[in-house]
Amino acid sequence: QVQLVESGGGLVQPGGSLTLSCAASGFSFSYTSKFMNWYRQAPGKEREFVARISIPAGVPRYAEPVKGRFTIARDNAKNTVYLQMNNMKPEDTAVYYCHAKDRLIQGMESWGKGTLVTVSS
Predict the structure, then answer these.
(1) Alpha carbons 99 and 35: distance in angstroms, whole number
(2) 3-state secondary structure of 66
(3) How far, in Å, CA of 106 to CA of 94, rounded?
(4) Inter-residue contact 35 to 55 (CB < 8 Å)
């Protein structure tokens, strides 16, 4: 059973940095083909795509609002995906969700429960 557990959320000032982690269990990064994604949902808004990285190759992709500020990375040995967020803005305030989507089996995907990030002075 796939489980995704996010951590690292919290309160940060505008211009600050924060790193989120997503620890995955139930599958191995080294022996699977997936997209590991970060999504976010701000209050009163729909959930939106933030970034993704392919497993195991590690090819990243970013949404336009976070390009140049956020970096997604993975550690195949630790089965963990990270989202490094720099130069944060108040509009980055949201619950951030980790998402795993299998690249070979349609419909096979899992979500974490999310971690709250608040950017405020």
Answers:
(1) 8
(2) helix
(3) 28
(4) yes
Q: How many CB atoms lie within 10 A of CB 101?
A: 17
| SS3 category, 83 | strand
pLDDT in tens, 44-74: 999 999 999 999 888 999 999 999 999 999 9
Angstrom distance (rounded) from CA 82 to CA 56: 14
Instruction: Note the residue count of the chain.
Output: 121
Q: Is 73 in a helix, a strand, or coil?
A: strand
Integer CA distances (angstroms), 69 to 15, 16, 100, in order: 10, 11, 22
Structure tokens at 47: 């959930």
Contact 6, 112 (CB under 8 A): yes
Amino acid, single-letter form, for residue 57: A
